[in-house]
Write a structure and sequence with these properties.
mainly beta, 12 strands, 12-stranded antiparallel beta barrel
Length: 307
């Protein structure tokens, strides 16, 4: 009798835990176009993604993103993104290779009785695309300079609703000025320690030298999604960023984020989960900042598969 009463109880508890875990994982499975989430790939797993973005400004552009992700350990994930750019749609009149990204995500844990989840994200941009400072054809689709986005990502669970928040500092290279040469990593050099490996903001030429930070900016976003309509997951988000200082140099007087534009973007979309491991999504973004040669609207289509 005792064994017979225990087994159904254990199965019920296991099922409840599994359903709860899958609901949380599904709603935070992947980042939204302008909001990162706490999605963490399980150790030993992989993810494939394909994104298509359609930009309505000028004569229209399309940007393809192909990515692969790896679950390194249960709290650490890495992803690599490659982009390809097209001018005009549906037919492409010109094309170019875009920038390359490496995304490192560390899941830190929970707080507030398990309702709050958080971690730290580092997104590295590598300049494999056209230089936005000198090639106006592909501005706002590629930067062509090094960049590092760094900061916390949080998710708060309130019943069937999930609130997501990002706050990033974006360190940007200025027209191929050199980016990582502000770091000092040689352990046998005295200068390495005097400049605190390049993090001494009071020393000239370091990574955090205030002169090098003038073209950097802060970015924040908020998003909300819900699993009440699962397998449909609708979401909305708002994104804004602001440069740390005014534009001083003529070469930076270009209509891109982090230069002449401090954007304010509103997005909405939905995803359909074919299974826990696969989904497709559709999104639309509208810019409240209207400027010539700057995207006013963006439509996105995405597909992801985890295995």
């Amino acid at each position: 009798m005792r064994r017979g009463n225990t087994m159904p109880l254990k199965k019920s508890a296991l099922l409840a835990a599994l359903v709860s875990f899958m609901a949380l994982a599904a709603t935070s499975h992947a980042s939204m176009p302008f909001t990162e989430t706490i999605a963490t790939l399980p150790e030993g797993s992989m993810e494939l993604l394909v994104n298509e973005e359609f930009f309505t400004y000028d004569s229209g552009y399309r940007r393809d993103t192909f990515g692969i992700g790896f679950g390194i350990i249960d709290s650490l994930s890495a992803r690599v993104y490659l982009q390809y750019l097209h001018k005009g749609f549906p037919a492409s009149r010109d094309a170019a290779l875009g920038d390359t990204f490496v995304r490192l995500w560390w899941y830190a844990g929970t707080a507030a009785g398990g309702a709050l989840h958080w971690g730290v994200l580092a997104l590295f941009r590598f300049p494999t695309g056209p230089n936005a400072y000198t090639d106006e054809r592909w501005r706002n689709l590629a930067l062509g300079n090094n960049e590092l986005k760094l900061g916390p990502v949080a998710q708060y669970e309130a019943g069937a609703f999930f609130f997501h928040a990002n706050l990033f500092c974006v360190f940007r290279e200025k027209d191929r000025e050199g980016f990582y040469n502000g770091l000092y990593l040689n352990p046998v050099e005295k200068e390495t320690y005097r400049k605190a490996f390049g993090l001494n903001f009071m020393a000239d030429g370091t990574f955090l030298d205030p002169k090098r930070l003038e073209n950097d900016y802060a970015a924040a976003s908020l998003a909300l999604n819900t699993d009440t309509l699962y397998p449909f997951i609708p979401w909305v988000s708002a994104y804004a960023s602001r440069r740390f200082s005014r534009v001083h140099e003529e070469i930076e007087e270009i209509p891109i984020e982090g230069a002449l534009v401090n954007p304010l973007l509103f997005s909405a979309g939905a995803r359909y989960f074919f299974s826990y491991n696969a989904f497709a999504g559709l999104s639309a973004t509208v810019s409240a900042v209207r400027r010539r040669h700057y995207p006013g609207e963006i439509v996105g289509v995405e597909m992801r598969l985890q295995f």
